[in-house]
Specification:
single chain, globular, alpha/beta
Amino acid sequence: MAHKIVLLGYMGCGKTSVGKILSEKTNIPLTDLDDLIEKRENNSVKNIFATRGEIYFRRIEHQILKEILSSPESLIVSLGGGTPCYANNHQFLNGENIVSFYLKASIKTLYDRLYHETDKRPLLNISDENELQEFIAKHLFDRSYFYNQATYNITVDGKSLDEISAEIISKLT
C-alpha cells in the first residue's frame, strides 16, 4: 500500500470528510494541509489570504506539502482546493509511494454544498446564486487539468462518504 494517500479536488467535494472515514477504516492518520498551515502560521487561511496575500499562502502551502510528502510515515493527506494548481504541486501527485484521488463533484453538487459557506471560504466572497455557479464552473474548468493529474478520479455525486471511502480503499488493495 502507498505511504501517502492524497485527496484533492474543489472545495466542498468532501476531501476532509472522506479523509476522516478513510483514516478510521485504514488506521492511517489524516493530515489536512490547511489545518497544518493554520497551526504553523498561527492564523486562519482566511486571515493569511487577507493579510499576507495569496502568493505568500501558496509559498507556505508548497513548502509544507513537500515536507509532508517526503516524511517517512504513512499518511492520508487532504489538500486545499487550489493546492495542485500552484508551484507545480501537481507533479507530486504520482510520486513514489503516493497514490492520489481526485474527488470529482459536479457544479451543482459543489454549489449546493458551498452556497451556505461563502463566509468561511476566502475565494467565495459571492452572494449572488448565478454568479457563484459561474464562479465555480470557471474555477473548475481552470483547475481541471491539475485535478486530472491524480492517479484516480472518483465521482462523488450522489454517493455517501462511506461509499466514496470504500471505492478509494478498493483501489488501494
